[in-house]
Design a protein that fits this description.
The protein is of the alpha+beta class. Helix content is about 15%, strand content about 40%. It has 5 helices and 16 strands.
């Protein structure tokens, strides 16, 4: 198990960052942390009430690195990766390899930001970034000039990232046994077996395994090993979020087709 590791943020990608900010900053009240562009992509982050963050990605200088361009061409807009910060990336990579995973795109040249990735075919179904931060100079750029004002009195809370997996055991082998998530709850309903994992900070992941091979969750995964299913938020007024439709138990959903490939599950603060 990796030592001194924390889930820092989840990243979503689109052709244009300006299409994402109205949702994650406007509707959900995320507070701008910072951003900037390097070869291949521009990124910026917003933070929510509990400290969990969403990162927005758009292609930038694709002639230098076209990985995000290729991702969007292949998949369209949607979830891209989850990022874990580690204290010692060399020690982390040694444990990753011993556990049978293949680190890719390893870059240790910048003392302020050393990184490596676990491929989604191993992950399963989502890119996992491991990063060692020098603590200075990560975010230098101010928000875009047209960055939207929040349409809520207070930031929402990003409760968890829900990752659908074909095998709960395979998901737990990575996110619990290697990446150090503490299992805090487990259960089953008519759609899924699930397990909740927590890290020292606010980051939480819920793993979902379909209970039926013909149900909607299995259809969402398809022939993959896994696929990000939704981001769960608590908000002031879920019904007031644009494109939200009611679910059971007073919750609301924004379907991926109405949110650039990312499903949102919303609950009022009074009904978390």
């Amino acid at each position: 198990m990796l030592d001194r590791i924390d889930l820092d943020h989840v990243a979503v990608a689109a052709e244009d960052q300006h299409d994402l900010w109205p949702r994650y900053a406007g509707d959900l009240g995320g507070v701008y942390v910072g951003g900037g562009g390097i070869g291949g992509f521009w990124s910026g982050q917003v933070e929510y009430a509990n400290g969990m963050k969403v990162e927005v990605l758009e292609p930038f200088q694709v002639e230098v690195n076209d990985f995000l361009r290729r991702f969007l061409d292949r998949n369209g807009p949607g979830p891209h990766h989850v990022t874990y910060k580690v204290a010692d990336i060399m020690a982390a990579l040694e444990l990753v390899e011993k556990a049978g995973y293949r680190p890719v795109s390893v870059n240790l040249s910048d003392p302020q930001w050393k990184e490596a990735f676990i491929h989604p075919k191993d992950a399963p179904g989502i890119v996992v970034q491991l990063a060692q931060s020098g603590g200075d100079g990560e975010w230098m750029s101010p928000p875009p000039e047209d960055f939207p004002a929040p349409r809520t009195a207070a930031p929402s809370t990003l409760v968890h990232v829900a990752q659908a997996v074909a095998s709960l055991d395979v998901g737990l082998s990575l996110f619990r046994d290697l990446l150090g998530g503490q299992e805090t709850a487990r259960g089953e309903d008519e759609g899924a077996r699930w397990a909740d994992l927590a890290w020292p900070g606010p980051g939480r992941i819920r793993l979902l395994q379909p209970t039926s091979p013909s149900g909607p969750l299995a259809a969402w995964i398809g022939d993959r090993k896994g696929r990000l299913h939704h981001l769960r938020f608590t908000v002031e007024d879920a019904a007031a979020i644009g494109d939200a439709t009611p679910l059971a138990d007073g919750m609301f959903e924004v379907v991926p087709e109405r949110n650039l490939g990312v499903r949102l599950v919303l609950a009022d603060v009074s009904n978390p």
